[in-house]
Amino acid sequence: MSSPTAAYAPRRTAPPVRPGLRRLRPRARVLSPGEAHERRVRRRVTLAWGLLFLNVLTFYKGTWNQLPLIIPIPSVVGKIMTQGALPAALLAAMSVNRRMLIRPNVFLGLLTLLFAEAFISGMHPVGHIVGTLYRTTRLGGFVATLWLLSPWWGRRDMLLVRCHLKALGVVLGTVVLGFLVAPGRAMAQGRLSGEFWPITPVQVADFAAVAFGLVVVLWFCGEAQRRFTVTALVVTGAMLVLTHTRTELIAMMAGILVAGLRVFMVQARVRRLFAITAITISLVVIVFSSVLTTWLARGQSTSQLTKLTGRTNVWGAVVNAPRDEFQVIFGYGLSNKAYTGLPIDSNWLAAYFDLGLIGVAICAALLLFVLVSAYFQPPTPQRALALFLATYLLVTSLTETGLSDASVYLLELALAASLLLPPLAERRRLE
Questions:
Q1: Which single residue of 71, 271, 306, 347 has CA 20 to 30 Å from 359?
Q2: Is the pLDDT reported for residue 14 higher than 60?
Q3: pLDDT band at 354 (very low <50, low <70, confident <90, very high)
Q4: Beta carbons within 8 Å of 388's beta carbon, 6+ residues apart
Q5: CA 260 to CA 341: how far, in whole Å?
Q6: Which residues lie closer than 8 Å to 248 by C-beta, 6 or more apart?
Q7: Mean pLDDT for the chain overall
Q8: Is the confidence at residue 24, as pLDDT, over 80?
Q9: What is the pLDDT of residue 136?
Q10: 131 vs 232: CA distance, rounded Å
Q11: Neighbouring residues of 343: CB distance < 8 A, sequence distance ≥ 6
Q12: Domain limits of the chain?
């Protein structure tokens, strides 16, 4: 009960505001020099990572549906944007790392070895010499930028994961915008594709699956809010279904399963989610088995499914291509991952074709290093994210290319490796 004097105490009221005058807003908090420097560093690292992501995006005139882009971008302008993003990313990394400090680690050492092997194989290229020289130089710039960003690997706030999610959000946002503006164009052949930027259904599925998996694992570890998680999963899950892509869906589920099992014993929410998911999947398979079979078949015959939509024919031709001893060991040089005009669609055969047996061994070492390092580390959000990315890339490497050249897949593998480094004991300003 309030005291008697409190009942008769005069109430404090806000001072009257004169007409025509606005109430002053509280001043923003002044950042300390250290906080201001940290903000500048985060912005530049985000810019460098976003430019790397832009560089590994493909650009060609028209959409996957053989239609012009909604906002026509000249081919020259699009290629300048993607190809010019790499030197811009290198400059951004140099601006934030003026002392050129690097953080030595096994992964970047193997990646540098991959570039050296590509340089050796490019000395005797077979095919387009200019194209091989450009791809080799591009891989070198890609690796150099990652070296310059290595001081920010292993941060507790997972800065690079946030940078990658932002880049994925921008690209997927253009796909969603194209679907809202012109749904008929975006789904012209029954599969979702980009209409503002030429993004194929497989690329849309890859971006959506990685974003979906990263958000799920972050939620597993209590690093993502529920509202953000639900929104992100609904959007990316719908996009993944609309692309009708099987490999990325299976790879995402495998990655989430492996990452979830590593935190199964320490997170009660993971145990509950696994139980609910197991029951839900069982009921869906029983009730909608025919619908799922039709969706997975995508109208293809048994022969097409057995030959993996014609991939096995190309794989046989790649294996039987004439080679001398040098080409068996070092390959033909970096190419556009196609043989006689047909895509190879297998990272291991593409690596064998471009970089020979040594290239295949280096790609395998990159994946195994991330998987083994993540397995033997204590249960942390960083380890769970690295396991998801490595497992996802391991499955997709069977029918997709990219781990032997500068690509989104290699960038995501570098992201997984960055999560496994221990945080620096003392952060030094890079000026």
A1: 306
A2: no
A3: very high
A4: 213, 214, 217, 255, 256, 258, 259
A5: 41
A6: 202, 205, 206, 208, 209, 240, 396
A7: 85
A8: no
A9: 94
A10: 38
A11: 314, 337, 401
A12: 36-418
